User: Fold these one by one.
Assistant:
Number 1:
Amino acid sequence: MTAEKLREEFLNYFKSKGHSVVPSSSLLPDDPSVLLTTAGMQQFKPYYTAKADPLSSPHTSLSGKPIGSKNAVSVQKCFRTSDIDEVGDETHLTFFEMLGNFSFGGYFKEEAINFAYEFLTKKLGITIDYVTVFKGDESVPMDMESENEWNNLGFSKENGNVKFSGREDNFWGPTGSEGPCGPTTEIYIKSMPESGQSTEIWNIVFNEYYSNKDKTLERLKNPGVDTGMGLERLAMVSQEVKNIFETDLFGPILSLIPKNMPERIRRIVADHARGAVFLLADGILPSNKEAGYILRRLLRRIIVHEDMSSDGAAGHSGYGFNIHLIMEKIISEYGSSYPKLISQKQIILDEFEKEREKFSKTLRKGLRELNRIGEINAKSAFYLYESFGLPYEIIKELGEDKAKGLGREEFDSEFDKHREQSRAGKEKKFGGHGLILDTGELKASNEEELKKVTRLHTATHLLQAALRKVLGDNIHQGGSDITAERLRFDFHFERKPSSVELSEVEDLVNRAIEHDLDMGYEEMPYGEAIKTGALYFEKEKYPPNVRVYTAKDSNTGEVFSRELCGGPHVSHTGELKSFKIFKEESVGAGLRRIRATVGEK
C-alpha cells in the first residue's frame, strides 16, 4: 500500500471511530519547552492538562477552533535532532510523519489497544509479531490493564508475544522539560515476512501522570491516550521492503541521487533535503541560533556533498547531483498531502539558493583549512564553523582520522561558551551597563530606557490589533523584540501587505494614541482569559493566573485591543505620542516583520 494511501486509511479509520481529524501543526511548536515539534501530541498538551477544553475552548495551534470531540486523529509533521548523527543507517531520520490517535478523557486502555489491533490486522492485513508492556518500578506500578487487554486478544507471556520492559522502553514523555507522560505498550512487526527481525511500529502512551520540571510525578485528573506510529516504518512493513529508504516515500528522491555514491551519503542527502524543505515551508530560515541553526546544518551538509560531487573531489568522481531538483521533487511528491509546500515552493527554493550562495563564498577555503589542520578538537572545529561555516557533521565526516577525538558534546559545549561570551558582550554594549530588565523580549539598562521599552511594548499590542483589523483575524504573532530604539514585531501572513494597508495600520495605531485610551488590566485564570477572546502568543507558556491588558475608550467602552501579557505597559495610550512604521519585510515562508518607533515625549 502506498504511503499516501496509508495516511488516508489511518485518518478514515479513526474518523469512523468518532475521532475529529485535526491537521498537522507547524514544525515550530507553541510549546516553549522544545525547539521543534517532535511528537504528534505536542499541539494537544493543553487538553491533557485541562488548560483547554477540546469541546469548547479554541486553541490557536488548531486554527483557533475547538476540536469538538474528546478524541482526535492526525498525521503530524515531526523533526528530531537527537539521532542526527545516526542518519544514514537503515532506520534513523530527522524529519518524519507521525500517525496518531488521541483521547482527552474519551477512552482509555481497552479501546486504544483494540483500535490499534483492528487497524493493523483487519484493515491493513499485517500480522503483529509481539507487544511490550510496562513492568513497573518503584514509583509507577506494572501496567496490568494493558497486559489483560492483550491477553483477551490472544497475546500472552506464555506464548512469547507479550514482553515486559522498564522505563527505558515502556514509559514515554514528557515532551520538553515538563508535561503529560505515562506507561506505554508497543507493537512490533517483522519488517519482512522471512526476516527474523522485528520493528517497533506503534507506541501507545497512556498519559496518567504529569512530570514536573524536577521529574516528580503527579496523577492527571483525566488520564488520556496518546499514540504514535511512524509513517515511514508503517510503509516499510506494509510494502515489505528491507528499510525505510526502499519505501515509496524515498524512492523518487533517491532516484535523483547517483547510485554510485556511497549509500550512507545518498540517504543523508535525501533525509536532509526532505527535512529542509519542510522547515523552510513552515517559515524557518537558516541562522546561527535555535531552529534556524538546525536548518543551516542540514543545508550546508548537503551543499558540501553537492559541491564535492560536481568536480570529482574526495573520491566523488564520476557523478553529480542537483539539490534544487531534489527539492522540487520533494515538493511535488508531498504537495498533495501538504499543500503548503506548493504555495511556498518559490520561497523554499529562493531561500535555499540564498544559503548556497552565502556558503559557497567560504566553502572551498574551509575545506582547504580542514585539510591543513592536524588534529581536530573542539576548539579547532568551532574555528572551522565560525570562520568558514562548516557544520560539525561535515568536519567529523571529512576530517576522517584527524577528528576521531572530536565528539558532539565537546563541540556543542564550545559553541555554547562562545554564544554566552557573545551575549555578554551585547548586553555590555546595550547602555554600557548591566540590564535592569531582560525578559528575552524586552531589554533596558537603566530607568530611562525602561520607560522607552514600556511605551514600545504597549505599541506592539496596538500594532497587532491594527494588523488584524486591516489584514484579517488570521494574523497571529510570530515573535517580538524590543530595545530602547525600536520595536520589532513578527506576524504570520502569507503575502506582502500593500503600502496602502500598512498606511492604514499606522493610522489606526495613531488614532488609538490620539484618543488616549485606557490601558488597564485584569487578573484571571488562564482558561477564563482565553474565553474573553484575548490574544496570546502561542509559543509562550502562561501561568495558571494571567493578566489581560485591554486598551479601550473610557467613554464608550469600545475595545481596541485585548491581550494576555505580563510585561510593563503605559496607563494611557496617549503616552506613546505617535507611531511610525519604518520597515516591513519577509523573514520566512508566511512570516513577516515590522520595525517601528514611537514619538519622543
Number 2:
Amino acid sequence: MSAPPVLQVQGLSIRLPAGAERALAVEGVDFTLSAGQTLCLVGESGSGKSMVASAVMGLLPKPQVAPVAGRILFEGRDLLALGETELRALRGKRMGMVFQEPMTSLNPVLRIGEQIGEVLDAHGPLPAEQRRARIISALTDVGLPEPELIAQSFPFRLSGGQRQRVMIAAALVLEPALLIADEPTTALDVTTQAQILALMRELQQRKGMALLFITHDFGVVADIADRVAVMRLGRVVESGTAQEVLRAPRHPYTRALIAAIPHGRARASGAFEAAPLLNVQGLCKTYRSAGSLLRRGREVPAARNLSFTLSRGETLGVVGESGSGKSTLGRLLTGLIARDSGQVQFDGRALAPELRHRPASERALIQMVFQDPYASLNPRHTVGAAIAAGPLAQGQPRDKVSALVAELLAKVGLGPDAAQRYPHEFSGGQRQRVAIARALALRPQLLVADEPVSALDVSVQAQVLELFEQLRREFQLSMVFITHDLRVAAQMCDRVAVMHRGNIVEMGETATVLGQPQHDYTRELIAAAPNFARSQPKGFDA
C-alpha cells in the first residue's frame, strides 16, 4: 500500500480585494504531491503560483486576500482550518520555504548563524553547543565553504548564490517534510543556478522530502520536475508528468510558454564596417575597501586590461558569472564609474573616464538599460517625465519633447496614456519597455543593456528581446548586451566575450564561441546552461 500524499490541494480558490483586475487570484486549483517527488508550478507573473505557495504556508495577507473555497491537506490536516498558533508550529519544522530574493528575506543586521538559529529557537530552545552544531551542520549540508566563517558573516558579505544556499539551509535545518521553493534561481547566473538545482535534488533524495518548485523557466522544469502543473490567470490549465507536459503539451498556453524559451541557436554574424564605432584598449578597474585595526583592506580587480572593438550596428554579448566584471564593464563604458587606466574611443574620439566630465553631446552617445527598471525609474515621476528628462536637459523645446515621448512609447508598444502613469502602475515587462524608451530618448548610437531580461517571465522576455532586435535595426544601434543566459546571448549577439574574474578569457563570433569553445571556463558555462532542447525530463528515456 502506497504512503499517503504529503500535500493535497483540492479546489482551492483565493479572492482578491475589490477593484483588482480579477475577482479570484486562484480558482479551483487541484494537485497532489508525494514524499520524494518534485512538482513544478509553472506560469507567468500573475498566474497565481506564489499565491498557492503563500496559502499553503499560511502567509496570505488576510483579510484582503484569503481562501474562499477548497482544502489544503498537509499530512492529512486541513491547513485552512488551523489557527495561527498551529500554523506557526508547522512552519519551519514540517514545512519550509525558500523565497526568490534572499536579500529581502535575510535580516541585514544579523549574522547568518543568528538567523538560522532563530528557526531553531522558534520550535523550542536547545543547549548552546547543540544549537551551534545544528547551524554548522545545516550550512555544511548546502555545500557552503568554511561554514563556521559563514555563520559569523553578515548577508551583504556573501554572493547571491551563497545567500540562496543560506536560505535553503534555514528552510531545511529542522528537516521538514515539504519544501516550497518560489523562483529560487531566477536571478542567478547559470553556473550558480545549476549548483542550486543539483543541491536541491541531492537534498531531496537524501531527506525524502516533497518539493513544490515554482518557476517560469521550462529549462529548469526539464532539469528538476517529476510532475508539472501549468497555471494561467489563477487556473491550472494543464498538468501531468514532466514527460507528458514537456514533450506533448496539449494546451495552447503551455505550447506558447515552451515556444517562448530562447532557442539557444547562434545567429549568423552580419557584415560590418571595418572602422570600429567603439574601441576599448587596456581598460582596468579595481575596487578598493578601506581596512581597519581588525580588518585588512581589500582589493578586487573587476576589469583587467580589457580590449575589444565594436562596429556600427553590431551586438556584442558579454557573458559570465556574477562577479566576473560584466556590469563593471558596462558602467565603465557609460562613464558611471571612472576607470583606473586604459582608453575608450567612440567614433575616433577619446571619451573622458567619467560621465560628468564628458560634454553634453558625448553623454547622449552611450545610454544604458539596467537590470531592474523599478530601481532605475524614479517612483515619484511619471514615465513621461522620466523619458523627457534627458532631452529637456539638453535644451530641446517642450512641445517637441512631448511628441518624442509619445513616439517612443508607441515604438516600445505602450499607448500615449502611459506617459501620465507612474512606474508602480506597470508590470515588470512594461517597466523595462519604459526604461528602453528613456534610453532611446537621446538618440544614442550605442546601447549598453545590463541583464535587461533576467528577471522577466519567458513570454515577456521573448517580447522584450524581439523589441531590442527591432529597435537595433530601426535605429542602427550598436549594443553591448550583458547577460548570464547563454541562450539569450546566442539569439541576440553577433559576437560574444566571455568574462571570468575581470578578464576576457574568450571572444569571437557567437556561433564559434558557443559551438566550439576553446577555454575551459566557456565550456563550464555551456554545460551549466539550462537548455530545453537538450534537456530530458527527469526519468525520460530518449
Number 3:
Amino acid sequence: MPVIRISRKDLERLVGKKLSDEEIMDILPRIKCEIEVIEDDTIEFETTHDRPDLYSVEGVARAVRSFLNMGISRYNYVDLGYKAYNKGVPRRPYVAFAVVRDLELDEEAVKQMMQLQEKLAITYGRRRRKASIGVYDLDKFEMPVYYELVDPKKTKLVPLEGKNELTLKEILSRTEKGREYGHLIASWEKYPVIRDADGKILSLPPIINGEDTKVTVETQNILIDSTGTDLDTVIDMVTIMATSIAERSKTKTIAYVSTIMGKDKIVIAPRDKGPIINISLEKARDVLGVELSLETSIELLSKSGIEARVKPGNALEALVPPYRIDLKTEIDIIEELAIMYGLDSIGKTSYDIPPSKGPGRIHPIEFLSRRIRLITASYGFIEVVNYMMSSYYMQSRVFGSDKPIIKVLNPKMEKYTGLRRWLTPGLIDIVRENQEREPVIKIFEVGDVVLPDPESPTSARIERRLGIAISHEKATLTDGLAYVHAILDRLGVTHKFEKGYVNGLLKQRTAFIVHNDRVIGFVGEVHPKTLKELGIDRPVVVAEIYLNDLLDILR
C-alpha cells in the first residue's frame, strides 16, 4: 500500500479545527488510513490502492470533515470555454484536462500536490504505463493546448528542475525521470508532447514536465493533464487531482476542458459527479446483521461524504462523489455504512446467530486436504500458499491458451485482475523466483480454483486441487509420474496414465491421470517456450490432482 506523509498543521488548517492524537488515531483508520507515525508535525500512514483520493492531505481533510459532520465538500464547476486538441498518439491515445482556479498555495501545498501526482501515477497509473499526470501554471502559457507527436531529435524542452534546453531524446538519458520512465516511449519514432497555442512545449508525457510552466507558491490557476491507454483512467486521474487541488481554492472553482479528439469525439473533463447507486436496507441488514433506519443510513453515508436520498420501498439512492472511484456497486455502499457505523460495533449489536442443529465436524474436502498435505510433505515437498487472485496473462496467455477466467470488475492491481483457474501458474512463478537460490525445488499447494460455468447460478464453480512442481537440471516427466503414483497409492486409489495435452506443457511429455475412465488430473513437463517466456532456465515438471473428484472416488 502507498505510504503518504502529511503535515499535521496543514491537516488541521484544511479541516478547520485542532485534532488531538486520540482523534487522529480514531478517525484516520475509519477512513482507510493505517497510521504508521505521528511525530512532531508529521503524520505518516498507509492507505489502500482503491482510495487514491486519500493520497494527499487535501483528500484526508475532506474525509475527516465529513466524518466529523462538518459538511460535504462541494465544488463550483464552470464552463469557461477551455479547449484542447488531441492530434493523435496511437500508442497512448487518450488525454484529458481540467483547470482549477483561485488557488492559495504555500510550500506545503505544492509538496502535497507533487506527492499526489506521483502516487497516482505509480499506483492507479501502473507506474505511468496506463496513465500519467501533470500540472502546469495556467498563467504562464496560452490555451488551447495540443497533444501530438513530434521529432524527438529536433524538439527541445527545459525539463523540470533543469536549467538548459535538451532535446526530447536527450531527456530520456540525461534526467532522472527520463532514465526511470524513458523505456515507455524510447522505441517510438516520434515522442508525445503537450504544447500551447504559441507552440511552447509544456511537457513530454509520460516522462517529465517543463521548468517554464512549473507550479510554485505564486501559482493561482492550474491546468491538469493526464495521458494514457485507457480513457476512464485518465479522466479518473484528472478528476481526483482537480478535486483535491480545489480544496486549496478560495472559490473551489473547477473549470471543464473540452478535448477535441478527431472529427466526432469530444472528451470533457473532469467528472462532476459519480454514479447513483440504489441501496436496499434489507440487503444491508442481511450483509451486516444490523437493522439500520433510513435516517441512520443517511447520516452514516453523510459521514462518509456521500449524499443519500430516500426512495420508495425502504430504499436509498447514494450520490457518489466524483473522486470516489472505489464506489461502483451496492455492496461498496454497504461497506461504507459498516465502516461509519463501526466495524467494532457490528458484532455487539447484530441479531443472534441461529442455534446449532447438530454437532460440528470437519468438512470431507478439508479432511482429504489435510491428508493430502501430510502425504505430499512426507515425500520432501514444501507447501506454498498462493493468492486466489491472478491475471489472464499468467493463467492463460503465457501458456498459449484462450481459456477464460473469472474477471474482477474493479481490480486494484494489474497483477490481480481475475481468479485463478488452475494452480500451475502460481507454482511456476514460485519456481522462477527461487531458481537462483535452490538447485532442487519440490513444492506443492492444496488450494481452490474457480472455473467459469454457465450452468451454475453464479456462472462459476469452485474446485479444490493439489498442485505440485518439481524443478532441477534433470527433471523429467518420470519424476512427476512417480510422485503422483506414490500419493494416489497411499490413498488406495487405482489409476493409470494416458497420453494427454495441456496448453503450455510438452505435448509428447504430458499425461492425464485416469480412474475408471474418469480424468482426475494431469502431469507433464512445462514447454521450453513457456519457461523462456517466464525467464526460467531449467526444466519444470508439474501435476494437478482434482480433489473433488478424488473425494467422490473415496466415498
